[in-house]
Amino acid sequence: MTHDLPPLLWLEAFEVAARTLSFTAAGRELNITQSAVSQRIRLLEDRLGQALFVRHPRSLSLTLAGQAWLPSIQTAFLRMRDSTAEVFGLSRDAPVTLRSTPLAQQAWLAPRLVAFHKAHPEVALHLASGFWSNDFGSEGADMEIRYGRGDWDEQECIALGEGEEQMVALAAPELAARLQRPEDLAGETLLHSVGFAVGWRAWLQAAGVAELERQTRRISCDTQVMALELARQGMGIALAHRNLFMRWQREVRHGLVPVFDLCVTTPERFWLVRPLRRQLREPAQKLWDWLVSHRQD
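Below the sequence we write its predicted structure tokens.
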């Protein structure tokens, strides 16, 4: 392997292909053909002397070398973008980008953005949705609302709301009326929102009816918004974050009521997050300061 760096186009092809795990998707993003992406990857692998991808019949996966190298390449591209914007002012007039889960957007963020826009109409905003943990990261967003324990590296994390977060069971009034005790969940449909540390299994254990899990029907949703909408339409019972739900009920007549008196504490919560190593632009700083000052409203 020579000591000079591979061409930037090859590195770009690797970063996009590794992120999407698809030469076809990488070609669409880079506006080139799938074969051009494949050729650049082959040239890069020849230059490095190691394979970066395992080519399966209908999919791709990274080799150990590819997995180890990818974070450095992504960091390098991010730093180039940031420094270019900082030096040449390319992002001076760009909208402030805030990424969040759909539930946090509806239940917490929306009313605060309405008030912020009235106070600062000059600030252009772009709202992006994230569903899974790997949807979130500093790339492309000035700040984020993330769900977790608040222990992300190199991030300033501000907890939203006070006190511990709890999970509460919710259902449409007609369904809730026939559920008098946890044992009544036998035969009912439990709506699971994936990606949470505390879900139905923990709730049933806390209620002393862990054995009922095998006697319930299961529907899994990749967003809590969808689980709550199905619950509103009487399809089953969903779990929600009590603090967010109470705030949501005040602002939107959502048609859900708590089932039972049991709430289960979870170590996770929603956080307002921004990268520590990157200084916010003035309009982004205005939004950050506003959200921080109104986080307990």
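The longest strand covers residues 257-266.
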